[in-house]
Fold:
Amino acid sequence: MIDTSSARSALALLDGAEVVAEDVSQALRADDLARRVVALGALTAALDAVAIALGPGSFTGTRAGAGYGVGLALGRGIPLLGLGTLDLAAGRAREPATALSEAGRGRLYHRSDGDVEVRHGPPDQLPKGLPATGWLRPETLEAVARAGVRMLGEAELDGFGVAAGRLIEGAQKLGYDRVRLAYMSSFGPLRG
Structure:
């Protein structure tokens, strides 16, 4: 599982739903991604699929991870799967929460537990009734706190790999040439 759509980047090597290895770091540059994948052992593992985060999130970050994932899957001739960034964020929460992802210009993508619609707007428009989860930049975290929304701490969340393992069965099956990423310019109608 490759997710480079957020303020942190995450890689997880799964055996079914079981986490074999995980690497979470500050947002990766494209040239760091290959090094981290090698360090994780993913290139020597007997992979049967590659999963990528589809966004919404960082335009450049989402494209870097997706591009690497497509190349890895295509090069090995194995299936390519996709999961939403907000699904992965929500999947880490042990309680109902609002999943968040950076949208740029001080705005956030967000979806509350049980809601199917992705919304987009400034932190002061976030729902106040639920805690929130997602990897955000420090200045965005401060804006969310000022808006009166409590972010779940790492101790209150499951690991990235655990969330990916729970969600992988329902991942979208993608074609190597048909990957549709979600970021502000291509996401379609967003409610704010």
Remarks:
- The two ends are 30 Å apart (CA to CA).
- The chain has a mean pLDDT of 89.
- The longest helix spans residues 59-76.
